[in-house]
What we know:
Layout (H helix, E strand, L loop, with lengths): L1 H19 L7 H9 L15 E5 L4 H14 L4 E3 L7 H11 L10 E5 L5 H7 L4 E4 L7 H4 L2 H11 L2 E8 L3 H4 L5 E9 L24 E3 L10 E3 L12 E7 L4 E4 L2 E4 L7 H15 L4 H8 L9 E6 L2 E6 L6 H12 L5 E6 L22 H5 L2 E7 L4 H10 L7 E4 L4 H10 L4 E6 L1 H14 L2
Parallel strand pairs: 1-3, 1-4, 2-3, 4-5, 5-6, 6-9, 13-17, 14-15, 14-17, 15-16
Antiparallel strand pairs: 7-8, 9-10, 10-11, 12-13
Helix pairs in contact: 1-2, 2-4, 3-9, 3-10, 14-15
Amino acid sequence: MRFYIALWFAKIINIVINIVDKSRGSNFSGEKAMRIDPQMVAHFKGIDYSKVLFITGTNGKSTTTNLVHHILKSNGRNVIANLEGANLIYGIATALSKAATLTGRIKADYIVFETDERFLPLILKQLPAKNILITNLQKDQVQRNGDPDFVYRKLFDAIGGDVRLFLNNEEPRSKSFDGRSENIVTYGVERHNESFTKDGTYPTMACPKCRRRIVFDYYNNDNVGRFHCDHCGHGSEERADYTVGDIDFEKRTFKLEGVEFNMPYDMPYMCYNYAGALAVAGELAGISAEDAAKAFGSFKNIGGRYEVLEYRGKTIKYMRIKQENPETLQSCINVIASDPKQKMVALGLCPVIDLIPNYTNTFYAYDCDLSAMEKSGVEKYFCFSEKVCYDTVTRLIYEGIDREKITVADTEDVETIFREIENAKTDNIYLITWLKTFNHMKQYCEKEGK
């Protein structure tokens, strides 16, 4: 009876939120309902766990979840997913309560949930999914996670048995789960013209299996690429089960199994999201490469990940990053560096406000290599933020960037930001900041930008 009360209470909250603001409340009803029934997720009926997929990891899980959902829906499957990115157990309770009947029965062909990598063990206890995709496990949110090996150990102990694992062939921690199940599917990306190497001045990582040094033959993304361990033999397979190749960023195409796909987004780090989603579509749902390719043409990622604004003759390319994650910042820097045109770079690195006290450490910018970006032709840098703008300036100075090229403002006022953009000689603007500031800029641009 407790479950029914919790379910009905959640449904009432969902109705109210839908009337007030559809964009809010992706965790709220589940959190309140689970105060009534802490085991609520375990009590939903009619779930076939072999058709449940969890997508977890540091980077790429939101995009991969949305892409998997899009491919399945485009091919006629009924799918439940937490597309809002609410990836803790409360968000899952909310998504299930929305989809369930009044008696708590779930009717769906597949359930696809993005799950927080740290809390996946807790979620598995109530919803024992038989399919798990691990994107990567990297440095992230050090104020609560400490280091990636802490999260790795928690996840490693929780995953195993008869679960099917979709593993990133070119990420050492993800690939090291290959001994946790007999049902392994690997996905990867061929070397392409945006791949790169690093000299010996940049540290690598410890092998997750033997703790010796991992050697990267090359990188497709920062800390992701063909690798091996000379001591224990842990490394990438010669070719993953699902390998994205023949990548042409200018034409925005790639191939899988000889089938050509159009790239919805042409950033290199997106290729692993494509490969992982296609592995799931093929193995979990039996969707052919040809049928999956048809869905790519209409895919749009969740708002705010990568967008373009036009403002008074300026093209502003916005790339959203986690404000505590060096890999996502490095990926954005690599995209900027690959553009040979003259450009302005606006950096609005911000404090992390998900925990109290707010976290303002900008260490992750020091983990990144900015040299290629500076050599690519940057007219000016603009550092803005109420809290950490001067920390960002300091990082640029440490890189050896001429101080005359740097302007700074300790504000996130959009008029100030746009005034600096207007003053740039170039019309090619790259913007990195958090979503809240970008949304304010987008609204301002819609009013004043024409």
